[in-house]
Specification:
Layout lengths: L2 E7 L4 H15 L3 E6 L13 E9 L7 E2 L1 H9 L7 E7 L7 H8 L7 E7 L6 H11 L1
Parallel strand pairs: 1-2, 1-3, 3-5, 5-6
Antiparallel strand pairs: 3-4
Length: 139
């Protein structure tokens, strides 16, 4: 059986809800999944993980300077090398996600080979487009 780990940072609960909906997608496809806030992360959680999704809410001005917020960037800096794990990003946003995914990738430079999926939601709900993208990610 394949294993997925979803690590998220949420401020108002929107990103938490989105992470949980992404988790349900994995469960429906018989992939064992663990959905965990970054505060509860332990490096042992990465053992035997095939898929890792990292998410947080979009911080920054409405149109410019979108970036992961400080707690997430501090968390990302402490992650070990994630080579050998298929990594994806997700975010929730108020107006536009802008450069969010590029800035998330910068935080993980040298720790990941590349990220293979970018999921976004304005209201924290998993969309049909998200489903298609995540299906490609796990195939």
């Amino acid at each position: 059986m394949k294993n997925a780990l979803i690590l998220y940072n949420s401020k108002t609960g929107t990103t938490k809800n989105y992470a949980e909906e992404i988790g349900r997608f994995f469960k429906i496809r018989d992939i064992a999944v663990n959905v965990v806030p970054i505060e509860d992360y332990d490096e042992k959680m990465l053992e035997n993980v095939d898929y890792l999704l990292l998410g947080c809410w979009t911080s920054g001005l409405m149109l410019f300077f979108q970036q992961p917020e400080k707690n997430w960037t501090n968390f990302a800096s402490r992650l070990p090398s994630l080579h050998g794990i298929k990594v994806g990003f997700f975010t929730t946003y108020s107006f536009l996600p802008g450069s969010m995914f590029r800035n998330m990738a910068k935080q993980l430079k040298g720790k990941i080979e590349k990220h293979s999926v970018e999921l976004k939601s304005k209201d924290g709900h998993f969309s049909w487009d998200n489903s298609v993208a995540l299906a490609q990610f796990i195939s």
